[in-house]
Amino acid sequence: MLALVAFLLCAPPPGQLLDLREGSLTYTVVHRLHEVRATSHQVEGRALAQPDGTVKVQVRVRIATFDSGNSNRDEHMREATHEQSHPYAEVKGTISGVTIPLQQPQETTLHGTVELNGEKQAQDIPVKLEPARGGVRATFAFPLSLDAFKVERPQLLFIKIEDRATISGDLRFEVAR
Amino acid sequence: MIALAAALALSMQAAPGGSPPPDIDLLPPPAAPDPAAVARQEQLDRELRTRRNMLQLHQLGGMLTLASLGATVIFGQLNYNDLYGGGGYTRRWYDWHRYSAFTSAALFAGTGALALFAPSPLEKPMRLDTAMLHRIAMGVATAGLATQIVLGFVTAGGVLFF
User: Fold this and answer.
1) Quick one: DSSP state of residue B30?
2) Interacting residues of B16 by C-beta distance below 8 A, sequence separation 6+
3) Helix residue spans in A18-157 (DSSP H)
4) Residue A46: its chain B contacts at CB < 8 A?
5) Which of A110, A100, A138 is nearest to A14 (CA)?
6) Residue B123 and residue B135: Cα distance in Å, rounded?
7) Under 8 Å CB-to-CB from A25, ≥6 apart: which residues?
8) Per-residue pLDDT averaged across A62-79, rounded?
9) Radius of gyration for the alpha carbons in chain A, expressed in angstroms and rounded
10) Cβ distance of B30 and A79 shorter than 8 Å
């Protein structure tokens, strides 16, 4: 009996696994003098589509891979987010009512948790899903508060950047082989 | 027992449409840092704090340098007008120009030193970005300022300084 319990606990959950094949994540922050966008193309992710239409999603990116076009600024961002202690920013969550393979574009919401700077915040993220080569393309954008994640906002000329940052992404998932 | 096992297995699945599950681990966890990495991390944190403080002062130094250079230009023009532009050769702006020039040079050097000697513990690729353009521009400005200092002494030599 114990073996059965162990088997059931360890057995992979039923569903279809999708791997993130390509994509980018961008953060946008605003300073009184200019707007900064930084992008990373080194995104890792996986999704598990379950038979009941629930999709579990995990996407993460190394903080060090964001490129804003200014190496000093990128270094400062790594410092502000304590990248040495918390090298990844991550989103985990679930989407309901999605059937894979996707037949048509669909707008939905991911109910999830965003982790940045070692802090976690619940976040509802509007996501647009489209059928894509061998899987699904997901595009999204959502705001977050840097203060809520205890990020010491960087300053330029002694003026801090705004608290609100926007995270946007364009990710393509393919059915895992 | 079977019912218990089934209940346990079902409890691992997210409730459709409900709040997010406590944790979803679909990706392999990142490797945990070893003690040596933790020690290096603490060292990096210290160096990054020092770097941040020095670069904040670098920004302040830049603004003060800009202000003092502006003052130097104004006093220099007033001094020129006084000496060679029909101003009566009173030398009333001479010391103003002289000391604002010295102040500018000192501020410029100190501001540059703050950036040059700031620790840079994180590996950064060498590439042409706005930070590199700033470094190149400041290299040209340093050459220009050094030339100005030499020209200042040469121009004033024998007339103003001796």
Assistant:
1) P
2) A52, A53, A54, A96, A97
3) 71-80
4) 26-27
5) A100
6) 17
7) A39, A40, A43, A59, A61, A66, A167, A168, A169, A171
8) 90
9) 18
10) no
Question: Which of the four pLDDT bands, split at 50, 70 and 90, describes residue B157?
Answer: confident
Asked if residues A73 and A36 have their Cβ atoms less than 8 Å apart, the reply is: yes
Q: Do A69 and B130 touch (CB under 8 A)?
A: yes
pTM of the model: 0.75
Domain coordinates in residue numbering, chain B: 37-119+126-156
ipTM: 0.79
Look at the domain A13-175 and name its fold: Lipocalin (2.40.128)
Parallel, antiparallel or unpaired: strands A16-30 and A159-160: unpaired
Residues B50-66: tens digit of each pLDDT = 998 999 999 999 999 99
* Element (DSSP H or E) covering residue B131: helix B130-156
